[in-house]
Amino acid sequence: MPEAYGQETPGTAARFIRTCDDIRHSLEYLAGIGCRGFDCCPGTVRLMDAWGTGSPGRAETLESIRSELGNCRRCKLAETRNHIVFGAGNPDAGLLFVGEGPGYDEDLQGLPFVGAAGQLLTKIIQAIQLRREQVYICNVVKCRPPGNRNPLPDEIGACVPFLKRQIQSIRPAMICALGAFAAQTLLETTEPISSLRGRIFDYMGIKLLATYHPAYLLRNPDQKKAVWEDMKTLMREMG
Ligand code: URA
């Protein structure tokens, strides 16, 4: 079960577990950006130099991540997609929204959250006094699962390293995970979104708040109040 701020178990064991987690995240990050060992290549040396300085620097740009993704055929979603939906917005955003995966409209346009759920997300962004161009928006998987089914574990496994690299490139102050799928993937938990939402978690040193997915809100408008409460928490936490 992920820990919310202020609910850590005190003591050495908890610090040890946290240190192990930090090491694991760092190794995952290095693997994600293509590092295959602690060799002395210039890229590795640059990265290790930046460790512990408090400003890890931008290891890579969104453009270079997108270019490495290329005409991705790493999973079977490539067979049915029209467009890869990499993400859109400000590469220096303080706030990053992460959804599940492209739907029908996103697949046609190659842009995230441009359908009905996207219009509601735009309103949510405006309600917190921001514009879409100021934030960054992307998804856990970059290609539309046929019929909007949930992405399968092998599809997530192929795509998540790119999401993690996007997060490290942007290093926002806050990640807003939209819906169960994004929240559970990023937090590596199976806890239901009803218990994850509204809480602030730590994702590799970045604050993460989970809330309901806009598509869920379209089906359950009575939950808009809960999302507004979550957005007030988000604004408070972002300062
Ligand atoms: N739903 C998502 O999770 N992402 C999109 O980009 C669109 C709808």
- Rounded to an integer in angstroms, the radius of gyration calculated over CA atoms is 18 Å
Reported by name, the CATH topology is: Uracil-DNA Glycosylase, subunit E
Helix percent reads: 40-55%
- CATH architecture descriptor: 3-Layer(aba) Sandwich
Number of helices: 10
For the record, the CATH class is: Alpha Beta
Strand content: 5-15%
Q: Spell out the helices and strands N to C.
A: HHHEEHHEHEHHEEHH
Oligomer: single chain
Instruction: For the record, give the distance between the C-alpha atoms at the N and C termini, rounded to a whole number.
Output: 27 Å
The unreliable regions are none
User: What gross morphology would you assign?
Assistant: globular
Bound small molecules, by name, code or SMILES, are: uracil
Q: Provide the CATH superfamily.
A: Uracil-DNA glycosylase-like domain
Structural class: alpha/beta
Number of strands: 6
- Please summarize the sheet with the most strands: 6 strands, mixed
